[in-house]
Amino acid sequence: MNSNDFTTAEIEQILSLYKSQKMKNKERYEQIKDTESFKIKNRQRANKHYHENKSMYRERYENDKQLARAKSTYYYYKKNGRLNDLSELSKHKDKYELLKKHGYFNDQKPSASTTASPISSSHAEPSSSERGSFFGALIGNLYSSSYPSVIA
Q1: What b/e sequence results for 59-82 when a residue is b if at least 16 CB atoms lie within 10 Å of its CB, and e otherwise?
Q2: Residue 65 and residue 117: Cα distance in Å, rounded?
Q3: pLDDT tens column, 90-111
Q4: What is the DSSP letter of 81?
Q5: Domain ranges in the chain?
Q6: What is the pTM of this model?
Q7: Residue 82: is its pLDDT beyond 50?
């Protein structure tokens, strides 16, 4: 489905429906958020999610442990104005290389990134995330899996 398939009036109608749906959901949440039944259900859902995904979070932590430690060192040296020392100290060489790999020490000059390309950016395709959220809003299935249904 292409965005050119809709007329301007249809797009405006879809956006107004989306806006009214968002407002109704917000009003509904504001009404039920302080009720005991909602709090209990929400806590149960969160507890269930925690126990079902505990191993996933543990694996993610184990995979990113070295990067987290390197970031901590980076922000310490940055706060104290000693980023040059981080790259020069031999005890932090591995952390420096890891941070460099993840783009913390980009030495890119602004002029290199802002030069005009021969291809116009007005004809660029939207990214997949932009495309998905726009068409998700148009189709109206935004709430299908994002929010749990809670009946008060």
Answers
A1: eeeeeeeeeeebbebbeebeeeee
A2: 39
A3: 788 888 888 888 888 775 444 4
A4: T
A5: 9-52, 65-104
A6: 0.40
A7: yes
